[in-house]
Amino acid sequence: MGCGPVKKEETTSEFAKDYWAELRFDIDPVVEPDLIGTITDMIEAESNSVDAVYSSHNIEHLYAHEVPKALMEFKRVLKTDGFCVITCPDLQEVARLVADDRLTETAYMSPAGPITPLDIIYGFRMSISEGNSYMAHRCGFTERVLRGTLNSAGFAYVATMKRPQPYFDLWAVACLDPISPEKLNDLALRHFPS
Fold first, then answer.
1. 24 vs 36, 62, 85, 133, 136, CA distance in Å?
2. Contacts of 130 (CB under 8 A, 6+ apart)
3. Of 6, 151, 176, 184, whose Cβ has the fewest other Cβ atoms within 10 Å?
4. Is the pLDDT of residue 5 over 80?
5. Which of 189, 91, 72 is nearest to 143 (CA)?
6. Each residue of 110-124: pLDDT tens digit?
7. How far apart (Å, rounded) are the C-alpha atoms in residues 57 and 54?
8. Which of 18-27, 84-93, 159-168 has the lowest mean pLDDT?
9. Is the separation of the CB atoms in 168 and 107 below 8 Å?
């Protein structure tokens, strides 16, 4: 979801394996997704049609009140035993730099150039200034808030992880069907970065 130019080989080590087929969904036709639309209303995607949803750095582009709508759409397209892998910025970690008055200093280098806390909080300014308003961030998460948001949306079985500097990100695996703690942990290990 919100794939951008990323292909499955650039997602998780598990999803990069040959037995996973990829269906790319994005609002921006420039990145040539298989399906075009917004994650808050994925009319182009069939219900109960996918085994997993990978959502990397796109839920923060929604307004806070839209995130539950997107998660409902994720649930709608998932098969009963499906799961989501979600990653997004960790505002708690970024706030440490802001508190140290480092708002516009480089937090890390990306392939697109230096990323500052300002970019992490509000969206990548270079892309936005070039007219890509899809890159603006409209909400944010801490690990507790991400877990609570997923639980409130009906994902009762959630594992999360936070990565501090230089990553500044959160990861979650969320399942609808009951899953043992051991299987949930195994799922997380297969999808979370090491």
1. 9, 19, 14, 20, 21
2. none
3. 151
4. no
5. 91
6. 888 899 999 999 999
7. 10
8. 18-27
9. yes
